[in-house]
Structure formats: C-alpha cells, structure tokens
C-alpha cells in the first residue's frame, strides 16, 4: 500500500482511505486486516488461486481467519469487510471501550469504593476475597439508603453488596504504583514505579555510565592477598558503559568495590578510546573519591597541559533511585543470563532462593579445605573472570533490538572510528593517565633501579629506564600502579612527579 493512500473498492470515496487517519500504533494491525479482506475478494473474483480444501465462502473465511495472528473465526473476517465498506481503513482500527478500567457499581456506591480501597491499600490487606467479605458485613452502612439505581427490576430494587468478581475487578484496576506503595513500601515504589529519564538517541562518547554490582556466584580465591587462600567469596564487578552504543568500554573485578576499581575501569577505557564528555554514576563515597581525583585535571597545570585542558562533566545519580541509571538494565542481563551458568557456584538472586546444588557445593568445598576431599566443585576467581571477560566480548558483538539489530561494537566504531582515538604510542597521554588514575606508593630504589611492592620485585622495563633509575639507589621515589593490573608500573620523582622510567 502507498504511504499515504490505499487502494479503494468500487463505490467508495478515496478520502476515507487516508493512512494518517489510522493511529500509528495500529497501522500494522490495520494493514493485516486489510490484507485479509483483499485476499478474500481476490479469491471470490477469480484473481487468486483458491486455497486447497476450500469449497465455499464459509470455508474460505475460516481458512483466511486461521492464517491471522492471532487466528480469528470466519465471522470476524466478514465483519472486517463490512466495517471496511462502511468506513474504510479507519473503521478497521480497534475501538476501545469507553468504560474500560471503570466500575459502574462502585461509581454509584462511593462510600463502598472508599471502604474497599481503605481495606486493600491503607490497611495493607492484599487478599481481595477478604475485602469482599468485609464489605458484605459492613454493607448496611455502605449501601443505598433507598432503592439502588442499578437495579432494573421493578419488583426488586433493594441495594445489595457487590459479588466477589466485581470487587476483584475493581481492585485489580487500581493504579499499579498505588498498590506497590501500599503493599511493598516506598523503596519498592521508587525502584519499580517512580519516573525515569526518557532515553532518546545519545551520541557515542557523550556519556559514560558506571556502577558496581555483585555477582550471584561464589568463587575461591587465588588472586587477592586480602582474602584467605581458597576461601569462597562473591566478587564484584565495576563496569563502564558507553550510553550511545551500549558498549562495555571498561571493567574491573575485585572482592570489594572501591574508588580503586573505578579508576582501574576508567583507565582501561580512557587509554583505549579517550575521554568522554560526561560521566554519570552513583553518589556513594567511592564515586565521590573518584570524582575528586578526576577534578585534578582542572587544578593541576601539569595535567591540563598533558590533556590539552580537557574537562569532564560528572553527574551523580539520584540517591536510592536505580531507575535513573541506564546501566541497571544491563546488570539485569548479567544476573539472568551469565550468573546462572556457573552452577553449583550460583547462589540465586535472593538469600532464600539458594539452589540445593549450591549448598551441596559449599559443603564439598568445606570438606576440601579440611582435607576430606581431593577436589572442589567451586571455580577459581581466575577462571570465573576469564569467563566474564569472554562474556563482555561476546555481548559487545551481539546485535541488540535497541540499536536497530546492530551490535554495540558496530555503533561505536561507526561514530568513533579508530582514527579518532588516542595514539597508543603517545607517551605523554599515558603519563597523564598514570598521574590521574593510578595508585601512588612511595618506595626506596634498590640496586639495579629495582623496587619491591607487595612481595613482588619490579625492575626497569628498558635500558633508558635503567639508566635513569640506577643512579637513584637509596632514594625515595613514587611508584604509580594500577592496583588491578600489577604487571606494569611507572616511577616518578616524589616532589615534581617528573617521569623516571617504566617498571615491570
């Protein structure tokens, strides 16, 4: 059909077939009904082959109705054709009932309506049948003093209480936010029903969103010194998401979230793609600390020069308002699809829903720690994190409905191609990120320009670094290091932050 007009049938005016007369949300439905009518007419006129098994008009209508989604009977096909003859495409639009969501009985009995709402909402009684029973007991004071206007019979106009179905339909039609607030409390109302930002298309690199979320899985520790070896714990993830493309651009996994995990995920993203115009994240203490650290760009002349006076706008989310953060929907994807894959390590989404095989797995792990078993069914954190990184890479390559069936990588690369990203060989840019986001530790230079941190020995990464660091033996210097990427570090002077060399 044309975008503006559709074919007309004999004896009809073309004016009633204007597509604009059909509401946008019903266009596909109206097109499907019109196609069914056309199919029927073409078969009856001999312009289209008769379907197999069709012998008369009734069987033809039944066959066409069975092909609709959802299927309808033959009488419905004939009714659509009558409506089309009378009013064109507009007549094929579904007609909503004027009394939809209303109750004639309770509109006439306002005292009964108020009492039903009081019982169901204010007193927190979620049992609708019990509300009906109480209304029947209290009806002498709630009903009409005289004849009921809803009673049509002349011989029986006495006012009677509503039946259980009427009460059930009335209470079920109450606004969902009102019921949620009454039955589950303010926190549930804020999380499920309160207003949220209308999210239109956002350009890539305009907004990056960050937050923490705990995995619903238990892993055994093999990576972190702050946890006992082989002890079970539930790790956290800190993610950084580009809002425009839905691409995960930075991440960090750790036993406990902090400003260090935030800085580690930011450093990963900034080093690969550059700086976003705005950051949107939580208002907790760890994010407040990370915010203060990023604001050093505006305070430090050295950083302003290295970063070409780049300023980042930082916005904090509303307190206890998860719907204001678009990344929450992404965390739901993890909890429903990724976490359950790791059974028996999966503990469930709520404490009371822990699967039986997880309890058995924890018991077996306890026997493993006490020497009663040679193995444990629980995965190591290193194995778990490798799976999480692979999940991120697969997600970034997955077509999404919200991106017109394109993947986050495709949208991101289209709007922010590699040519617009930082040069990986730009030592000045890397130095600025180290000063801005790395953890700072003071250490004494040992023989050969080496330093020791966390029972690990770092040595100069190249000849140039060795020549600058070796003469400083016995002096205090500052080591810049990402606490969740321990392979590399940078040495700078304690007072001037002058670059001395790279360590590994």
Looking at this protein, list some descriptive labels:
5-stranded mixed sheet; 504 residues; elongated; alpha+beta
In short:
With 504 residues, the chain is α+β, with helices and mostly antiparallel strands. 40% of the residues lie in helices and 12% in strands.
Could you please describe the fold and organization of this structure?
The protein has helices at residues 27-45, 57-66, 74-87, 104-108, 110-122, 128-142, 164-172, 176-184, 186-192, 259-273, 285-294, 296-299, 301-306, 327-338, 356-369, 381-396, 408-415, 427-437, 463-469, and strands at residues 207-214, 219-220, 232-233, 236-242, 247-254, 278-281, 313-316, 439-444, 451-453, 456-458, 476-481, 489-492, 499-503. By secondary structure, the protein is α+β, with helices and mostly antiparallel strands. The strands form 4 sheets. The chain has a 5-stranded mixed sheet with strand order 5-4-1-6-7. It has a 4-stranded antiparallel sheet with strand order 8-11-12-13. Strand 11 (476-481) and strand 12 form a beta hairpin. Helix 8 (176-184) packs antiparallel against helix 9 (186-192), helix 10 (259-273) packs across helix 11 and helix 10 (259-273) runs antiparallel to helix 18. The protein is elongated, with a radius of gyration of 34 Å.
Trace the largest sheet across and list its strands.
5-4-1-6-7
| Weakly predicted, low-confidence segments | 1-18
Query: Could you give a short account of the major beta sheet?
Result: 5 strands, mixed
- Which structural class should the secondary elements be placed in? alpha+beta
Average per-residue pLDDT, rounded, comes to 81
What's the shape?
Answer: elongated
Helix content: 40-55%
Beta fraction? 5-15%
Count of DSSP strands: 13
Cα distance, first to last residue? Answer: 68 Å
Rg from Cα: 34 Å
For this entry, what is the oligomeric state of its chains?
Answer: single chain
Count the helices. How many?
19
